[in-house]
Amino acid sequence: MPRRPAEAPPKALLQLCSEISQILEVYDAERRITPVVRIIATSDDGQALGADSLDALSRRLPIIIEYTAGKNIEASLTAPLAHDLLGIAHIAHVTTPDALKAFNAYCGAQTLSEQYITIMWPQPVKPTVVATSQPKREQIAAMIIDAATMQPELPIQAPPRAALGRQVQSPVATETKIGADIESLKKTIDLLTKQIDEKQFHIDQLDEILEQTENERDEQFDVLQDSQELSEAAEAENVRLEAIIQKLVVDKIEFEKLVERVAPELQMRNVLEALYKAKDTCSHLRFAPSAFETGSKLHGPHPGRLYRDLRDLNIVVAEWNKGEFPFEGLRSRCLAAGLTFVPNIGEGTSQKHADFYSIIWNGKPVLLSAHLARGTGGNQISRIYMHIDQTLKTIVIGKVVRHGPDRTSD
Known about the structure:
The protein is α+β, with helices and mostly antiparallel strands.
């Protein structure tokens, strides 16, 4: 007789089943039955879906798989079926090329394509590819509902003997009942065997994870050991560097002593230090307070070069003091010593800027008529203005500035 086609349950019944699934946890091969689409996004997800499709021997519900990369879940064809086929099918969406590749690699063939929908039936039934680029949702639902109506009922354990009536049964009825019990027991044993196989598969997975964890632990231990060795080497290197630094400190102190003895001008940091050093070492020169006052404000000229000029001038004055040359030869002797000596300034300049070119020395005003010139441009220019005491044959350093005013200055 022709079989009457199965029909989809009423919406009210579907809604009731959906609400019950949120309250009661019902599983199919360790996958909870819910009205939710399973998202397969990574390579690991793809392999897990392949394992559920081929290796979960206790799975009773088919898995409808759709490739949905590049579109959202609302635009997919099978998303509403997660609600409509609740309890008789799982829905899975493969959302990335990596997940698709991993799933097909696990299944060993091009089980799922980018264009078609695949139905993974419980083992040992082969997968079904809906070879239509735009199938109708009702078409897929009809296939699942028809398959669900053809499934055998789950074995139900027989009630205890005490619950049975004490009526006497005929031998034929008793044999029939025993045969049915044996058949039911066989089905229960088969179901338990499948569950044991699934549990064993899960145990094997846990063993692999444990082995991987132990390998990672060993690798981390090796990394830690290498880090300790590097730390010990770094500590030894630090000790070596500290010894080198201590030696450099000692060498620096010895070098500073040598510089102080051989070339003291190298240690001078500014013009004022050069002036004080010259005052201590140049015995044939005299220094007015205004020299230090103006020198403290002069920045730029090299203090060592300024000190050498004063030291060379001191040597020239010492020779003059000994009578090796007359006063008139002072300029030429300075030139021979590498000094730019200007013996006097213009009368107009000295009168116009008398406040600059005159100082008080030993209680008397004296004229700073001569000067040493150094530099012709930039911040290296310096002028050492001085008073020449012909009676005592000495030179008084009066002012040290960048450049004194002339007759054109305001």
